[in-house]
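Structure first, sequence second, as always.
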């Protein structure tokens, strides 16, 4: 058994920022970070484009950033949260710069700012095309300076501990569900251990692996969201899965390599198989329309032409500027025989970001007492029906701060619950065939990609749900009878994620933001149906 004052699950920008802030504020408190892979293997690491922030009030304004976010969110953003994130963002970005993050600057020492889809101004701070790597590097180095932060790699959290594990009946209407810690599989010895904490922060990232094609790393299996759902916590807006319009198309390769939206912000043009620049046919903002619009446009062009990709044209762009700003994209394309400045780059949409998740208030508190959520696994109200490009890193910084501030107010009044029992693995045996797990994962990803992708309809959603029901039953039988493995736990979590996405999509009888249902093509049609 392990006891820690503060438990943080996940080592991306949200988890590490919270850990550093708490360590500075409470040097005598123990802070434990659990991550199922290496410390730097997070969704943060794969963020290319940058972080959106208004820190040049001469050419930009908070109100413009707020409006851009609200427009992208298609009526479902919480305006209060949007204002908080936009206005508190500059101070939080300044902090991470003080901790060593190096954003690109021009020859005069000013920040170089990019522009991406949905933004009305140049406000994206970046580090080449590996902004996430740079931010993660600085945060890890800062965390290592604090001896009360302990990072445990290769620990897979199985479930959060609540009254349910003490023998009490817990339902979704139970008003005082409380988190006492977690059960976690120590991958170095394959033991499931009990970890007790006074407060717990869920910062487990996204769930892109529920789809066959995704820009997310293999660890993005929605673990935190699934765990909170099983513990009867509130989850919302899971139908809003953002597909990044421009992942590099390589047949059979997963995860897909991301071609950041900043390339289009610098002048890249999308073209169909006939070489036509098609985006002006779909939106007056053309290649800089929000991601939901661009992804649906590409999907439409692919279906009309019967192709598996479209093209991104960078041939007209300044060669030196491109190589300086996007060195890794240029190198990746070259590695598969494409000169990005001489040839068209094949691109296709790929699952990229989960706009819904664990519902929180404006302090990052979930519906479960002493359990906070931050980063992509959370649903704060910022993104609404569609995330504005490069707002995610900003949200993580702002809410990491807010979570720590609220924790600080209550930490002194909290204690451990020593009545929590050890994990009971009696009656389980080693799995006889891993094919039962790997094949179910393939089936899940196929069902989600074919039936619950960029464009949906009621028949596809019904079929998806019936197949998910069967996968759920089969996997739960395995879970109850076999010794746990990360593969089985991830499959179980991904099936839960798939269920939540389909459930939300079936419930939403309209098309809005990232959710497009051909049976309800626009909100005006829905209003007319209600009137009739």
């Amino acid at each position: 058994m392990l006891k820690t004052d503060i438990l943080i699950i996940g080592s991306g920008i949200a988890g590490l920022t919270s850990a550093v802030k708490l360590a500075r504020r409470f040097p005598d408190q123990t802070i434990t970070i659990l991550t199922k892979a290496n410390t730097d293997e997070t969704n943060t690491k794969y963020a290319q484009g940058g972080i959106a922030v208004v820190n040049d009030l001469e050419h930009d304004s908070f109100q413009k950033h707020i409006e851009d976010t609200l427009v992208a969110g298609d009526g479902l953003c919480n305006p209060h949260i949007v204002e908080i994130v936009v206005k508190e963002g500059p101070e939080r970005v300044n902090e991470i710069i003080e901790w060593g993050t190096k954003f690109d600057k021009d020859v005069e020492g000013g920040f170089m700012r990019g522009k991406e889809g949905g933004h009305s101004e140049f406000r994206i701070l970046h580090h080449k095309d590996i902004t996430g790597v740079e931010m993660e590097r600085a945060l890890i180095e800062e965390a290592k300076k604090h001896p009360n932060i302990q990072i445990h790699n290769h620990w897979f959290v199985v479930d959060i501990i609540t009254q349910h594990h003490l023998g009490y009946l817990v339902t979704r209407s139970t008003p005082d569900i409380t988190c006492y810690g977690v059960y976690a599989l120590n991958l170095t010895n394959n033991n499931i251990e009990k970890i007790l904490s006074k407060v717990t922060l869920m910062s487990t990232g996204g769930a892109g692996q529920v789809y066959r094609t995704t820009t997310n790393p293999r660890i993005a299996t929605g673990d935190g969201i699934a765990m909170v759902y099983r513990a009867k916590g509130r989850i919302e807006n899971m139908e809003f899965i953002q597909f990044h319009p421009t992942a590099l198309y390589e047949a059979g390769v997963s995860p897909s390599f991301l071609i950041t939206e900043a390339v289009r912000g610098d002048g890249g043009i999308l073209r169909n198989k006939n070489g036509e620049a098609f985006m002006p046919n779909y939106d007056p903002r053309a290649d800089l329309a929000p991601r939901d619009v661009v992804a649906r446009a590409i999907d439409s062009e692919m279906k009309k032409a019967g192709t598996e990709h479209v093209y991104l044209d960078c041939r007209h762009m300044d060669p030196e500027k491109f190589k300086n700003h996007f060195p890794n994209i240029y190198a990746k394309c070259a590695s598969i025989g494409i000169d990005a400045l001489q040839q068209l780059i094949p691109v296709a949409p790929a699952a990229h970001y989960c706009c819904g998740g664990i519902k929180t208030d404006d302090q990052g508190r979930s519906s479960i007492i002493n359990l906070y959520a931050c980063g992509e696994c959370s649903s704060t109200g910022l993104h609404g029906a569609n995330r504005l490009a490069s707002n995610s890193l900003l949200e993580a910084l702002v809410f990491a701060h807010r979570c720590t501030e609220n924790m600080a107010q209550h930490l002194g009044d909290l204690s451990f619950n020593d009545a929590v029992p050890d994990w009971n693995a009696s009656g389980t045996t080693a799995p006889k065939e891993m094919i039962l797990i790997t094949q179910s994962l393939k089936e899940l990803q196929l069902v989600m990609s074919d039936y619950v992708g960029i464009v949906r309809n009621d028949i596809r959603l019904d079929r998806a749900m019936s197949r998910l029901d069967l996968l759920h039953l089969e996997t739960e039988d395995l879970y109850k009878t076999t010794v746990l493995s990360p593969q089985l736990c991830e499959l179980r979590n991904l099936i839960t994620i798939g269920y939540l996405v389909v459930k939300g999509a079936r419930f939403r009888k309209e098309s809005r933001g990232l959710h497009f249902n051909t049976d309800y093509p626009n909100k005006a049609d829905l209003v007319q149906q209600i009137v009739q």
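Margin note: The mean pLDDT is 93.
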